[in-house]
Specification:
Largest sheet: 4 strands, mixed
Distance between the termini: 44 Å
Radius of gyration: 21 Å
Shape: globular
Strand order of the largest sheet: 9-8-7-10
Oligomer: single chain
Length: about 280
């Protein structure tokens, strides 16, 4: 009897241990992006010996409903639960990632020190300059790196080498200045025309998805990435990367290969983000 009791206790311990080590549940709104080399021939990383590891990335840009559930208030200019959140800085998005991770019982991906100025930040206009580092091995939410974003937007291993995310026709995949208002605009980009046309953000997921089932990676709102913007004409540590274009911008910004940049403290009605997690 004693041996049987010991056996049962051991078995229960093993089962409990196995259950406790199960991977955290990934929301249905996330897609597993299988890693590998870049297949999209229009990518900046094509045939550059760059590879991406597996990751989960959200099908949609972070919505205002999701933002309010975590942050408690809505900074967006255009209000709507299913519209992408905008008017958020890079710092705001980093903080959101950690707070959402904690809310869902995940280990925060970032270490944020608001009192220590980041020595890598060379932007003289940035009064925040939080020191943000990566918490190695954390399973929480984070911003995609620029290469991860481009890999996913370009279709990953399923890529058909589209110019935009999921199509060679921008109007099928993206909300941008021509089609994001009351009527389809023609001619050259014009702010008075855009303003008079009531251009604005659109509900996430309204356009066609790309090969991986990801929506709005071209257009709607520009999406923050983790990286500093690197360019020979820009001082390192000055600007953060955004990708994907938005409702206010021209069609070129919607291309999967287009690289945009903005001050990390910057905010705009066409500036949002999406989140990802490690596998």
């Amino acid at each position: 009897m004693r041996k049987l009791l010991i056996f049962l206790l051991t078995a229960i311990t093993v089962v409990f241990s196995a259950c406790s080590q199960e991977k955290p549940v990934v929301p249905d709104s996330f897609v597993l992006v299988k890693g590998g080399a870049f297949k999209n021939t229009k990518s900046n990383f094509y045939e550059k010996n760059a590879t991406i590891s597996n990751l989960y990335i959200c099908k949609y840009e972070v919505t205002q409903k999701e933002w309010v559930e975590v942050m408690g208030s809505n900074p967006s200019q255009f209000k709507g639960d299913n519209l992408p959140v905008e008017m958020v800085s890079w710092y705001d998005c980093i903080e959101y990632c950690n707070k959402r991770s904690i809310k869902e019982g995940l280990k925060p991906h970032y270490n944020i020190d608001k009192n220590k100025k980041d020595s890598d930040n060379k932007n003289d206009s940035d009064d925040l300059k939080w020191t943000v580092t990566v918490n190695a091995g954390a399973n929480g939410y984070r911003l995609p790196t620029e290469s991860e974003w481009e890999y996913a937007a370009g279709g990953g291993q399923l890529s058909k080498s589209y110019t935009y995310s999921g199509s060679d026709n921008a109007d099928e995949a993206a909300w941008y200045w021509r089609n994001a208002g009351d009527t389809y605009l023609t001619g050259d980009w014009s702010w008075p025309a855009i303003e008079g046309n009531n251009n604005k953000t659109k509900a996430v997921g309204a356009k066609d998805p790309n090969e991986l089932g990801l929506y709005d990676m071209s257009g709607n709102v520009r999406e923050w990435c983790w990286d500093w913007y690197e360019d020979q004409d820009i001082a390192p540590g000055s600007l953060r990367v955004w990708r994907g274009g938005g409702w206010l911008g021209d069609i070129i910004g919607c291309e999967v290969s287009y690289r945009g940049s903005y001050e990390p403290y910057g905010k705009g009605p066409d500036q949002g983000f999406r989140v990802c997690r490690g596998e």
